[in-house]
Structures are given as structure tokens and as C-alpha cells.
Amino acid sequence: MDELLAGGQTFDAVVLELPSGGTDTIARAATVGRPLVSAAWHRSPSLLAAVRAGARGCFSSLTEQRDVREAVRVIIRGGFYICPRLVDQFQGELARGGGEEQNGLAPREVETLRLIASGFTHAQIATRMGLSQATVNTYAKRIRAKLNVNNKAELTRMAIELGHFSHPRRLSRTAA
User: How many angstroms separate the Cα of 18 from the Cα of each of 33, 39, 62, 83, 175?
Assistant: First the structure.
């Protein structure tokens, strides 16, 4: 991915296979082209999380080749594609509102987890997210309880495993 980003080029489509960094990888790919993402969608990230990160199309490893070719054609023309095997799952995620990831984390908790894994202090996270430090402390406590972890190292490991964090120091530590 780094070579792709370093080239300074843009592409009509960027085909990704996850979990190679989860939503961070999708967001990075979206800066140089339209991401078409393949993954085992029964784990994090959800289809809706992938789309929110910038995916223009999603398919599974069981998708027929003709459907993958069609997906590439659709996103190159600027459209959006979900393979037929994933339509029901995607509709279910939309119906639930996608408020929480499969691991039970709310969107703000995911954002907090990503920032903790990036090495930010709770005070820095509060400033960056426009929250009080007490709110960030509450988010961190909820995240630890939901993921059944006890310390920052375990939180970072879980962030990586769940696809919410892929490259250390990717985010600037200066307050936004």
C-alpha cells in the first residue's frame, strides 16, 4: 500500500483484500482511487464500516469471477457495488443503523480505540475529539470492558486484530 500511495498517481480502482489493516487501509486507498474490497465479512470490519471508510464496492472470497469483473466495471464508472452474496448482510447492517461494530463498539469508541492505539493520551484524545477528558476516560473504560482487556498494550493489540489500526504513528500527534 505504501508504494501505491508514494507514487503520486491515481487509479480508477484499487482492489484490496482485508484484513490488511481494516478501515484504515480502505481510507488510505480511497485517497488514490476507488476501493473495491474483498474480505471474510463475518468479522470486523463490517460492510457498513468498509463503506464508511471509503469502499466503493465489496465482495467475498466466494464471489464468482464474473461478479468481480462486474464490480470493477461498476466502480470504474463511478457506481457502487455489493456482490449478490452480501446484499442481505448489507441490508441487515443498514437496518440496524450500523451504530455498533460486531464487537460491540460504538463509532466514537472505535475512534477512541484507534487514537489510544496510536499513542495519544486521554487528554490529547479529548482535545482532538472535542470531548472532556472524563468522557474519553469513560469511553476507554467501556472499550476495555467490551473487549475484555486490561491495559493499553492489550487495547493496541485488539485494535490491530479488529482492523481499527494498522500503522503506528500514522496520525499526527499535534492537536487538531
Answer: 17, 5, 14, 16, 30
DSSP designation for 33 = S
DSSP bridge pairs for 82 = 58
Residues in the chain: 176
pTM (global) more than 0.85: no
* DSSP conformational letter for 22: T
10-residue mean pLDDT profile of the chain (176 residues): values are 72 80 77 88 77 88 92 93 90 69 74 88 89 90 88 86 61 43
- State residue 78 phi and psi, 5-degree precision: 95, 5
Task: Give residue 65's identity as a one-letter amino acid code.
Answer: Q
Query: CA-to-CA distance for 20 and 26, rounded, in angstroms?
Result: 9
Q: Are 25 and 166 in contact (CB under 8 A)?
A: yes
Quick check: 56 and 82 in contact, CB under 8 A?
A: no
The rounded distance, in Å, linking the Cα atoms of 106 and 140 is 12
